[in-house]
Automatic annotation (TrEMBL), chain B:
This is UspA domain-containing protein. It comes from the Archaea. Gene3D superfamilies: 3.40.50.12370. Transmembrane segments: none annotated. It comes from Haloferax marinisediminis. SUPFAM superfamilies: Adenine nucleotide alpha hydrolases-like. Residues 109-232 form the UspA domain.
Length: 727, 235
């Protein structure tokens, strides 16, 4: 038995997600930024951290819903790309990638500062930058050659640094001099908001949870829990650290220090405290930077997967299996950013703000994407964590407003750099992405809203050779029933998986297939002017899955492709088709496409409840090529001189056409009188491009009755054959 | 859960390398159901979907090749950051009784079954019974008692276990037992294992990370040259 496709393992549990998210947040930001924060906001910088934490919490809420709805790699970039299309996808993708590099460079320069400052004879920028570069190279090496089982080490380091910060806070509280906290906000509210923009970088960690959403176990629970919890806990910790820092040392002298936390610690924890803080700061910088590099490579992978950038990046190393090109590119640019630190005095604040800018823009678009997803409600988007009523739409609206407010208070140079990155995304989309990928996004659907009372035709497609033909027929059918509701086409692709389980990640698999499907289906939908939706389903049994879709969609009609063989392996039409023909509660058309053209369809009309359905179906198919269907009836002569045979045939056809709601000018009548009905039918129908035949009688129980006439048509007529079964 | 005659074992195979593992032992186990798990280890820094995009077909081919050599069993292919978690999940999903680790054995005549105590004993014996009923091996049950402990306890355990196997329908001639009073079961098992073709071990109690193979056990498995069949301990 051969392996049917491959699976991805979901291996990250709650603890892993927390250490990934919280671990990236706790640390680097808090060790490096308090000096700058105190300089620009005074003791009120604790409020800046609180605001930044709140903005991050809003983003975490929106992201949680999106990530549980689509748990695959890519994070914010992926959701924006799907919701708003390739243009915004490119903006956010490039923004996140560069933002993560800014963050990495920021952490590594901070790392150099903490190492250099305590040693008196090793002063100077060259050393700081040099150490930062050495640290970066080590990290890149680890990422390039790949490590396994590093998560245990990660957990230990994060535990240690958290413990050190907790001691710092717990002891520091007793050394706060209330005089230092006066005046609380020397630079007013403007300074507080401006500082929020600088320190926002401290809260990037939760985004990393979203970029690895595809690997998280039980995503519906763990993603929102770990994102929200990590943001809340880290915010509380940061506010406390800031209160202690500004309370122990006057904010003016704190502002002058590149290693603020260590300067605070020396006043009440002594040299041992300083050593501990320096140690914590170094491992914090390394783990945060490592996470950023990791996330950056995921973002590039997702962009390559969706065709926003070349998939040259998406090649893994032949021996180490790491995404070495993405890592090398990320590392190279990060090194350049660190080197800029040689010339630019305020590099730390600049890098922090630039990273914050990119992510604030990304989060605004994430909030918009959430609204778009809710409005358009695409198939497959069924988040297990959905924001409850008062939070939606409050969270996305507040999220956009606050993000933009913070951005507006940023330094001019940062706004210029950030806007430059956005502009680059726009230019990139215009020159590279557009024309290569079909990614319209859901925006137009979201604005239009959902049509009422559609007439739905479901088409399962899997074979690239026939999907075009099937989609054309389905579109014609949907279109022909406009009077019964807005025509809507639902193209379904079922991926068979032997043992579907929530633990395995098959989501990403669907992409390739779905893209072909989208391309084809969109063309036809545009040609035939019908609304189109696509669905992809993963299931063990294709037939059962199609039946489920028919139920969910309340389908009016299903058009199935069939290879034209009968009675194989104990099935009538095949293992997939049989259950649908047997149990579907809507009209079923089983189509075997043998020619390119649909041309003039002929319907075989015999008295019976199926005749109107068959006649109507032929009329629907006729609209593909704009022809008039022929309704054919064959009569056997009763006796030698039966002149009424033609008349009898005509009346059968007219009755059926009337029941089908066809006007007299919408069909042609042909009546054949012959002794050998079977042969006559084969001869008569062979003149037409497409033959519509009813499945004789009702399907009862598990049997599918199949007449001999039908069988002859299937075997002997070279035209397209459609077997029709009414609901 | 003593279903005699339906032994199903999971055989994990690393499909990232070119070499296929020595699995000759599979052809000598008699009528035993096999689930072949091909796993592709993904380093922490890589996105599993990326590796699947790139190496999926190659990995499938390798797995198919291994399956073709050994009677075309069920196949599963997984890209994973965590091999142990995958083995555990697939073993669970396919309801496997034991996991086979690769090792060199071209024949399977003699099976060593170290018993630690009552832990997991029922399942281990059920698997051994299934194994013996499916093939023609002989089994040696083994127990190592601590130096200052009463050896009769160990004897009692082993004799009771032999009786259980006989109750399952195994011919008494095919089962014997050995008691060691050395007090170092780990070394004993590794040394003794060299004389056998297959070692059946019981999974240690789930460790903190619920791994299928605990530290002591994996040390033994690593040191053994012959294949080991690790009986799962599921509640």
């Amino acid at each position: 038995m051969s392996a049917e496709g491959s699976e991805l393992e979901r291996t990250l549990g709650f603890v892993e997600a927390m250490t990934l998210g919280g671990g990236t947040m706790i640390g680097a930001g808090i060790f490096i930024l308090p000096g700058i924060a105190a300089e620009t906001a005074g003791p009120a910088s604790s409020v800046s951290y609180a605001i930044a934490g709140f903005v991050a919490l809003l983003a975490a809420l929106s992201l949680s819903e999106l990530a549980t709805g689509m748990p695959i790699a890519g994070g914010s970039y992926h959701y924006v790309n799907r919701a708003l299309g390739g243009l915004f996808g490119a903006i956010v993708g490039w923004g996140m990638w560069t933002g993560l590099m800014f963050a990495s460079a920021f952490y590594m320069i901070g790392f150099g500062q903490y190492l250099v400052e305590p040693i008196p004879f090793l002063d100077g920028r060259v050393f700081i930058v040099g150490l930062g570069l050495v640290g970066l190279v080590l990290l890149l090496g680890v990422n390039y050659y790949g490590t396994e089982e590093s998560s245990a080490f990660q957990n230990v380091t994060i535990g240690v640094e958290t413990a050190i910060i907790l001691v710092f806070v717990a002891v520091g509280v007793f050394f706060i001099d209330p005089g230092n906290l006066e005046p609380f906000a020397p630079f007013g509210p403007g300074g507080v908001v401006a500082t929020t923009g600088i320190v926002f970088i401290s809260f990037l960690g939760f985004e990393i949870i979203a970029t690895v959403a595809g690997e998280i176990k039980n995503p519906g629970r763990i993603i929102p829990l770990s994102m929200i919890l990590s943001v809340v806990l880290v915010t509380i910790l940061y506010v406390l650290v800031m209160l202690v820092s500004t309370g122990v040392i006057p904010f003016e002298s704190l502002g002058d220090s590149p290693i603020p936390v260590s300067d605070v610690a020396v006043t009440y924890l002594g040299p041992a405290g300083v050593v501990a803080i320096v140690f914590a700061a170094i491992i914090a910088a390394i783990s945060s930077s490592n996470s950023s590099i990791l996330a950056a490579s995921r973002v590039i992978y997702a962009m390559g997967r969706d065709g926003v950038v070349t998939d040259w990046f998406n090649v893994s190393h032949p021996r180490f299996y790491t995404p070495h090109r993405a890592i090398a590119a990320t590392g190279g640019l990060t090194a350049v950013l660190i080197l800029v630190g040689l010339e630019v005095e305020t590099i730390i604040a600049l890098l922090a703000e630039a990273a914050s800018f990119s992510f604030l823009v990304a989060y605004s678009l994430v909030h918009v994407s959430l609204v778009v997803f809710r409005r358009a409600d695409p198939d497959g988007y069924d988040p297990s964590f959905a924001l409850p009523r008062p939070l939606y739409p409050a969270v996305p609206i507040l999220g956009v407003v606050l993000s933009l407010l913070v951005v507006s208070q940023m330094a001019t140079v940062v706004v210029v750099i950030g806007s430059g990155i956005v502009a680059f995304g726009v230019v990139w989309y215009a020159t590279y992405t557009r024309g290569r990928v079909v990614s319209e996004g859901l925006l137009s659907e979201a604005i239009r809203g959902r049509p009422a009372e559609p007439f739905r035709v479901v088409v399962p497609v899997s074979n690239p050779a026939t999907q075009r033909g099937l989609l054309r027929l389905a579109a014609a059918s949907a279109h022909a029933n406009e009077d019964r509701g807005t025509p809507e086409l639902v193209a379904v692709n079922v991926t068979p998986v032997a043992h579907p389980s929530p633990l395995q990640n098959v989501e990403a698999d669907r992409f390739e297939h779905q893209r072909d499907l989208l391309n084809n289906a969109h063309d036809i939908a545009a040609e035939m002017d019908v609304t189109l939706r696509t669905r992809t389903v993963v299931a063990a049994d294709v037939g059962e899955a199609i039946l489920d879709v028919l139920e969910e969609e309340a389908a009016d009609e299903v058009i199935l492709g069939w290879d034209g063989t009968l009675g194989r392996d104990g099935h009538v039409f095949g293992a997939t088709v049989d259950p649908v023909v047997r149990s579907a509660r809507c009209d079923v058309s089983l189509v075997n496409l043998r020619n390119e053209t649909v041309g003039t369809p002929v319907a075989l009309v015999a008295p019976g409840h199926n005749a109107p359905v068959v006649a109507h179906q032929a009329a629907e198919f006729a609209t593909v090529d704009g022809t008039v269907p022929t309704l054919l009836n064959v009569q056997s002569p009763r006796g030698r001189n039966d002149s009424n045979a033609k008349e009898r045939g005509r009346s059968v056809v007219v009755d059926a056409a009337e029941a089908a709601g066809l006007a007299p000018d919408e069909y042609d009548i042909e009546v054949v009188v012959a002794d050998d009905i079977g042969r006559a039918i084969v001869e008569a129908t062979s003149q037409y491009d497409t033959v519509c035949v009813g499945l004789s009688g009702r399907t009862e129980g598990s049997r599918i009755p199949f007449g001999t006439v039908t069988e002859r048509v299937v075997h002997d007529v070279p035209s397209n054959v459609a077997l029709i079964r009414g609901s | 859960m003593t279903h005699i005659g339906e032994l199903r074992i999971l055989v994990p195979v690393d499909v990232s390398g070119m070499e296929s593992p020595p699995l000759d032992v599979l052809d000598h186990l008699g009528a035993v159901e096999v689930v072949l798990l091909g796993y592709f280890p993904v380093p922490d820094q890589a996105e599993p979907a990326l590796l699947r995009d790139q190496y999926g077909p190659k990995a499938t081919d390798r797995l198919d090749a291994v399956a073709d050599e050994h009677g075309d069993p069920d196949e599963v292919l997984v890209f994973t950051h965590d091999r142990e978690a995958t083995i555990d999940r697939i073993a669970d999903e396919y309801d496997c009784d034991a996991v086979l680790t690769a090792g060199r054995s071209t024949v399977v005549d003699r099976v060593l079954v170290p018993l630690r105590g009552d832990v997991n004993l029922d399942r281990i014996l059920a698997v051994v019974a299934d194994l013996l009923l499916a093939g023609n091996e002989t089994a040696t049950l083994f127990h190592s008692v601590a130096e200052d402990a009463d050896p009769t306890q160990g004897e009692l355990l082993l004799m009771g276990a032999v009786d259980r196997l006989v109750e399952y329908g195994v011919d008494r001639d095919r089962v014997d037992w050995r008691l060691s009073e050395g007090g170092d079961p780990q070394t004993d098992i590794v040394e003794l294992g060299a004389e056998y073709d297959l070692v059946v071990l019981g999974e240690t109690e789930p460790s903190l990370r619920e791994r299928i193979i605990g530290d002591v056990l994996s040390a033994i498995v690593d040191a053994l040259e012959v294949p080991a069949l690790i009986v799962r301990d599921v509640e």
